[in-house]
C-alpha cells in the first residue's frame, strides 16, 4: 500500500494528471509498466493501454503482447497494439535498434493520442532508469544537462514512477501478484545501459547501500543547477546575441569576463542550435588559436568564428557541410546523422557481411585526415563488388533514392577518393582483403 499512496502523492505534487484526463499507458509487459497499470487503475484514473511489438525477440515478443492484452481486458480498459517492422526500419534508416524503436513508438503514441483524445501519455521509467541515464551521459561527456537524468514531464508525456526504485516496484508486483515478463535482452551486457545496471551500479551499492536515495538527491540538485544556468544563459543571450538578416551573432566581448567563456559558448550553442559537445570543443579550439574560416555544423545550422564573434546561420541548400575527420576521433557529424569510428584488428571482425549503415574498410589504405561532405556532381567511385567507375549521381538514380534523400547524401573521402557513399556502399578499393591487418569500422546512426 505504501507504493500506491506514494504514487498518488507524486502525481498530485507534480501535477502530472487529473481524474479528468484520459491517460494512455505505455505497457511493455515488464514489471515496471505492469505495476504502473495497476497503480493507475486502483487510483481511479481513466486509462487506455498501448503495447508495441517490435518483433525483435521472436516468440518472446508475441508472448509479451498476449500478456498485456489479457491484463488490459482484466482491468476493463481499452487495448491498442501495433506490430512494427523494426529490423527493416533499422536497415532503411541506419538507426540503432534503440533509436529506431524510440522514434516508432513515440510517433504511434502521438497518433493514438490525437485519434482517441488522450491528454496524457504515461511512461514507466523509474528512479533507477534515471540513475543509469546519469552514468550513460557521464561516460558520453554530455555536460551538466545530461546529468539531470530523465525528466518527469515533457509536454503530454509523464513519468509517474520516477519516485520509486526498481526494488520497490518489484516488491509491489510480488505482493499484489501482478504478472509480468522479463525481457531476456535485459540480461545481455551487449548494451551500455545493461553494463551499468548489471556491472557498475551493484559495485557502487556495495560501497554505499543507500546509493539509490543518494543519487536521487544528487540528480535533483543537478537539475536545479541546470535550471539556474538556463535562466542565466537566457539573460546572457539577450545581452550578447543579435539577429540580423537571418544570422545570429554571439558577441564575445559582451560576455562578462568573470564567466567561464567556453562554458557560456557551449550553453548558447547547444541549447538553442543543437550543436554537439565535441563540435563546440573544436570551435573553441579554433577561437583560442585565432583560426578563422572553419565551419562547424549541427543538424540544421552552421557556425563560424569571425573577428571576435561567432556567427550562426541556417545551412544553405548548396552548402557542402565539409568537415575534417582526424585519425582517432570517436565520431563525426553529417546532417542528421553521426558516424562512429572504431579501429580494430582483422581477427576481431566476426562478420564481413554488414548492413548498409556500417562500413568496414582497410584502415592502412586511408590517408588522414579524412573528409566528410555532401556529394556533388562529378563525384565517382568504384562500388564494392564492381570493377568499373560509377558516378554517384547514377548510383543514386539506380537505387531509386528520392530527391530529399539525395540532398542529405554524404561521402567520406581519403584524399580525393571516395571511401564510402555513406549509408549505402563502400568503394571497392578499400574493401577488406586477405592482406588486410587493420580495420576501420564506421557506423552511421541517426541523431
TrEMBL record:
The lineage of its organism: Bacteria, Pseudomonadati, Bacteroidota, Bacteroidia, Bacteroidales. Its main location: cytoplasm. The N-terminal region contains the highly conserved SGGXDS motif, predicted to be a P-loop motif involved in ATP binding. Keywords: ATP-binding, Cytoplasm, Ligase, Nucleotide-binding, tRNA processing. NCBIfam families: lysidine_TilS_C, lysidine_TilS_N. Belongs to the tRNA(Ile)-lysidine synthase family. Residues 370-442 form the Lysidine-tRNA(Ile) synthetase C-terminal domain. This is tRNA(Ile)-lysidine synthase. It is found in: Cytoplasm. One of its GO terms (molecular function) is tRNA(Ile)-lysidine synthase activity. HAMAP family: tRNA_Ile_lys_synt (MF_01161). InterPro entries: Lysidine-tRNA-synth_C, Rossmann-like_a/b/a_fold, TilS/TtcA_N, tRNA_Ile_lys_synt, tRNA_Ile_lys_synt_N. ATP binds at residues 28-33. It is an enzyme of class 6 (ligase). Its EC number is 6.3.4.19. It catalyses: cytidine(34) in tRNA(Ile2) + L-lysine + ATP = lysidine(34) in tRNA(Ile2) + AMP + diphosphate + H(+).
